[in-house]
Model the fold of this input.
Amino acid sequence: MYDFKFHSAFSVDDAAAKLAAAEDGTVMAGGQTLIPVLKQRLANPSDVVDLSGAGLSGITNNGDSVTIGAMTTHAEVAGSSDVSAALRSVAEGIGDAQVRNRGTLGGSVANNDPAADYPAALLGLGATITTNQRDIAADDFFTGLFETALNDGEIIKSVTFPNATKAAYAKFPNPASRYAMVGVFAAQAADGVRVAVTGATDCAHRGPKLEAALSANWSPDALDGVTIPADHINGDIHGSPEYRAHLVVVMAKRAVAAAG
Amino acid sequence: MVENGIGASLKRKEDNRFLTGKGNYTDDINRPGQTYAYIVRSPHAHATINSVDISAAKSAPGVVAVFVGQDLLDDAVGGLVCGASVTGKGGEVNKVPPRNVLTMDKARFVGDPIAVVIAETLAQAKDGAELVAIDYTELPSTVSTANSDADGAPQLHEECPNNVALDWELGDKAAVDAAFASAAKTAEVELVNNRMVTNAMEPRAAVGEYNSGTDDLTLYVTSQNPHVHRLVMSAFMNIAPEHKFRVVAPDVGGGFGSKIFTYNEEAICAWAAKRINRPVKWTSDRSEGFMSDAHGRDHVTKAEMAMDADGKFTGMRVTSKGNMGAYLQLFSVSIPTLFHGFLLAGQYTTPAIYLEMRCVMTNTAPVDAARGAGRPEATYLLERLVDVAAGEMGLDPAEIRRRNFIKADQMPYQTPVVQCYDSGDYHASLDMALKNADYDGFGARQAEAKGRGKLRGIGLSSYIEACGVAPSAAVGSLGVGVGLWESAQVRFNPTGGVTVFTGTHSHGQGHETAFAQLVTERLGVPVENVEVVHGDTDKGQFGMGTYGSRSLPVGGVAIANACDKIIAKGKKIAAHCLEAAEDDIEFGEGNFTVAGTDKVMNIAEVAFTAYVPHNYPEGVEPGLDEIAFFDPLNFSFPAGAHVCEVEVDPDTGTLEIVKYTAVDDFGTLVNPMIVAGQVHGGLAHGIGQALLENCVYDEDTGQLVSGSFQDYCMPRADNLPSFDVDYCPTVPIHNPLGVKGCGEAGAIAAPPAVINAIVNALGIKHLDMPATPEVVWRAAQAAS
Done:
């Protein structure tokens, strides 16, 4: 780990100010990605601004939607009765207990790891990301490999998930890392059928073919015969593009079956 | 009956400190004035080193010293050694390419150490390391086990033309050819034994400390055999003479073979501590461990079986290549040859066996012994081949095994591949395993699973291994450069407590408990009064250490023999005190008794008398402290039958081990709970190899692809079933305690049991390890 200046932020505005004052600063949420990266000297920020004291934790359910503070940990989401079963299952499937006790919703969303679970849930439920600058629809947020719509200095405050009629997440974990080799979130969401896929490509995305088939017939059988072309699908020592493409359909069926 | 003696499932004495954070591991050791070493490693698989510029690093803040290979040569420090000289085809002994502690001419694998930066803090050492400027010319690399000996492959060492370190053969080729020529049926399988990284929970570490006042050098190191570490570093590397060199292997968190060997970083810490006259610490991080610990297995093999019309094996032919990595580590070529070839008979009467093994050098980390070391490779190919043979014959896998088993009344049994088994009842262990696994009920379970869309399969593995290494003369004649006896010292303290010094080393096996139980059984002293000391060359006599499941069958016998010397001396003392003839003294359960009388003296009283010899037999030395060295007459041959049952999800290729049944013959169990734990751990290792673990190098770049736990998949609890473990013991005629080793059995037995079960589930001939979801899914697709 290289040396850096460490700051504790006491509010989002305080964090934004400290970040703005830094030469090459970064914010830290739960640190479950940032700290390993720092330890391996793969990043060399001048300043790290810790958000844990910025008052961004908490879950509120207003009956139509649930709003989760950016610094709410995966364990808190997984254990919350204010959160839908589908979203709880996403949170409780992330990493291990230690990661879930430190890792946060906002950190995961802002990092946008191609194999992270939360991006699929945000896309699958049509969530809205609220930052210190604006509201961003999930559909507009995840823009590429570790890339998001966040501007420099923009900090996620919370994410609002509209209630869905039916929803479930089916994850095929990488046997080693337990990240999603393929994860599919399928929902009868507020604005219709939504199916989101993570792990398969460089960025979580919606699956139009899957959505079309399920809009016509909300049933696993509706996906019989649907195939996903393997171009643009990730391949590595754990799974070829062809295998992952196959898993997208299998996991989509399982998500629909689990959603009921 | 002695309480807490042999057969008691005593809770482990050492667990109190391990479970409460009170262990003392190498990285816990900090010495006054300590510095920190960081190794500069090659990022290239193969490259000429044109120059190494350390000037900027030397002047970096906090940097104490920077060294390159020449600095060690200037101090006449030798290179790392290979302790094996195995005679191959044409009487040619394996080549041993030289290996400097810090490589100077070329880098030959990703992670090859080139320089070391020593600084006041680890962070400063890392900062300094970034300033070491190395000019490389990248060379084409070769990592393939199968193809590195091909014409035109990049060459690693001048000493090894075509990257061949050894061409070895074993057995009667003509007899095998004749068996195939006259065979009624043959079976053949080509398979890969995947490369593994052992990944002990505790990474390797070393702390060197030099006392300029006494000229004593101390090395704290993660070692399975501190005396051997000292011997190698002293005799071959010239780091310090043995009598001025102390090697301490304190608590060690797992070894699995990888901590047998003497490594570059350890030699650097020992040597540099004297050179800079300050303690030097190095602790591997996990990434360094992946790239620089010795790896295990990595064979590509073709195996063939000739059979008569009844499915009796008449000949077996194995053609194989073993990957040695970029340099020959300590045991290296002995593993794919001696430790592999000598087990190819398995539990069967196959009369003629021929193995050709080529040991190839590649641009990968060195490959050496890893839990099982050669025997898992032999068992895997044999037990896979037997299942393929059963398929060819249309026989049930259990039936073809029974037709070919060596019978219990044939013991001792001389195999055609050197080993002479001393005991075993393979029919009995298979019968017991099949019963415990409800083999007969499998069909119903398979049908039920099919109704749930799952493919259920069952697989057998009838394994034998040779452990408890071993008779010194035998291993010496085969080219192993040391004797493999073991030592023990049993010391009564004046007040009756017993301190046992063992030459073995415990890195998780529970010796402190099991050995104490042995002493309790033998001497009748309460187990809490027995303390087992190991791991320090300054405490106790020379010993050979722990590997090859040798600690109990070899080291345990040494302890028992030292106890017997204690008893023999105690009889003289007791006879004097009890005013009886020595021949009339009987010993049992801690008491010396005059036969036929109630005159008795407890061993603690005898010990006190030995140290306070006011009333003492003439001509007997004071003190009660005995030493014994034991050189076994044969290996120990644990064997057994394992049954694995799996369910495959054909949609994804994921599978669950729904039942795993182990029946093992370990002879007498000293502590059944510890034995079960060893079996569980071995099975996790073997199942990990079968399903999850794979060390992958990129074929084009030579980069280590599986360089972290993100990509290298270790088995976790949820990958494993609750094991059904049982025993079917026989009495080994060569072991005075009747014990056999148990530490490696699970890792040896499990891989073929698991793969045979998957193959059975899918109705296919073969699939390679690791049977990852995609591998299984593709096989299921192809089969359906």
Notes: Chain B has three domains: 34-139+204-283, 295-470+634-783, 485-630. The first strand of chain B starts at residue 35 and ends at 41. The interface with chain A takes residues 123, 126, 287, 651-652, 654, 692, 694, 696, 705-706, 709-714, 772-774, 777-778 of chain B (CB under 8 Å). The mean pLDDT of chain B is 97.
